Amino acid sequence: xxxxxxxxxxxxxxxxxxxxxxxxxxxxxxxxxxxxxxxxxxxxxxxxxxxxxxxxxxxxxxxxxxxxxxxxxxxxxxxxxxxxxxxxxxxxxxxxxxxxxxxxxxxxxxxxxxxxxxxxxxxxxxxxxxxxxxxxxxxxxxxxxxxxxx
Amino acid sequence: xxxxxxxxxxxxxxxxxxxxxxxxxxxxxxxxxxxxxxxxxxxxxxxxxxxxxxxxxxxxxxxxxxxxxxxxxxxxxxxxxxxxxxxxxxxxxxxxxxxxxxxxxxxxxxxxxxx
Lengths: 150, 115
Fold this sequence. Notes:
The complex is a heterodimer.
Chain A lengths: L4 E7 L3 H9 L1 H8 L1 E3 L8 E6 L8 E10 L3 E6 L16 E9 L4 E8 L18 H17 L1
Antiparallel strand pairs in A: 1-7, 2-3, 3-4, 4-5, 5-6, 6-7
Helix pairs in contact in A: 1-2
Chain B lengths: L2 H11 L2 H8 L2 H10 L5 E2 H5 L6 H13 L3 E6 L2 E6 L2 H29 L1
Antiparallel strand pairs in B: 1-3, 2-3
């Protein structure tokens, strides 16, 4: 699948710890680098602003979809809608899903972001089979990150 | 995310919305499938084999043109259309960009929960 982003990463921390880092709005803000106005509530809009130095003027806006404790956290948003001059509200939002699985050494985190287009896979012309070299490259980067930090 | 990536992305970001929207239609996908071979086609050629009228096909071609996916070229008195790969490359670059941002965010998450 080339119209979605899929990541998997092994974390050496218990599922409960990862769940808190994902769904506690303050903890999420720490690593995502966003200051959120309040807790995540399914079905509700989450507002805030980016805390990355130099980009504090950028807004964060997402709609929380599912919070199934220690299993699934999902929200829809306009991915990296970073140009304040563009109105992203007319674009179809993408769906971000974090899935957690317990492993021997901690937690397996599966991230998917989908909905980048509505092209039915079986009808896509050859031209749209985007070269997946980019993803392969990114997976190598993750492996490198993991090797460095573990 | 680095400043360099951030500042360069807004230029890339812009064409993607319309391009994604333009491709979310079966007729337009079929038109692009015909055009992506590289040769230019006339509106008559593109209407052939379709149940749609010439006017309807022209309308779809204009949507694709506005999104930068095809461009029209005039050959004599005839208006022909050809595929412009730039918009598709823009989509791919954009997905690569979002993918890279996730790598960085997940790497920060990893440090956050493991320390």
